[in-house]
Amino acid sequence: MTHNTDTLLSRIRELQDQLEAEFDRRRDAFLYRLENGRVIFDAEARRRQRAFRVRLTDFLRQTRPLVVLTAPLIYSLIIPFVALDVMVTLYQRLCFPIYRIAPVRRADFIRIDRHHLQYLNALQKLNCVYCGYGNGVIAYVQEVAGRTEAYWCPIKHAARVGATHAYYAQFVDYGDAEGFQAGLQANRARVAPPAD
Q1: Residue 151, number of CB atoms within 10 A of its CB
Q2: Quick one: average pLDDT of 122-133?
Q3: What is the pLDDT of residues 27-69, one digit of tens each?
Q4: Rounded to whole angstroms, how far apart are CA atoms 107 and 116?
Q5: Residue 166's closest CA among 184, 189, 149?
Q6: Does 126 fall in a domain?
Q7: In terms of DSSP H, where are the helices of the chain?
Q8: CA pair distance 154, 184, nearest whole angstrom
Q9: Is residue 18 part of a domain?
Q10: Nearest Cα to 121, choosing from 193, 69, 62?
Q11: Long-range contacts of range 23-29, CB-CB < 8 Å, 24 or more positions apart?
Q12: Reported confidence tier of residue 156, pLDDT bands at 50, 70, 90
């Protein structure tokens, strides 16, 4: 990997740390804290949030009928989400130990916590649970797939791709035949450290 790529990755990590510090600052402003992974709001924050809740009947009345008609299609995706979640979890539990790839903690990606927000009505809470699960599964799968790709085929694509995982920047350049074997070993070492 070039020195320039290392520098850019370092700057990205610094910016991510700054962004997380900003999120922490905003948590304080909204009067909540995390204790053992659970969200705890103080009583005043809960009271203020409830004042902004839109009643379910008002919420449904304000929703366009065509939007309501799409709900069964959206919610039918729970079946492939659950199937993908189960299959990817099974895959990594069976295969990652063989490859010596560090396992992905599913709980680091699937967060179901928005239902604690008092300003959401019951349907909004259900929607937030669904989106938290669906997007969490996709992020979890991307991490498992990223580690798998880093182990087996750490080569950048010839053309730019829309979104990449955390390992992609360190992949071997497309067409770098000379550097491929060394790059393959370096990428494998990142996701599957050598056994002692």
Answers
A1: 21
A2: 96
A3: 777 778 788 878 888 888 888 888 999 999 999 999 999 999 9
A4: 18
A5: 149
A6: yes
A7: 3-29, 43-50, 56-62, 65-76, 78-99, 122-152, 177-191
A8: 6
A9: no
A10: 62
A11: none
A12: very high
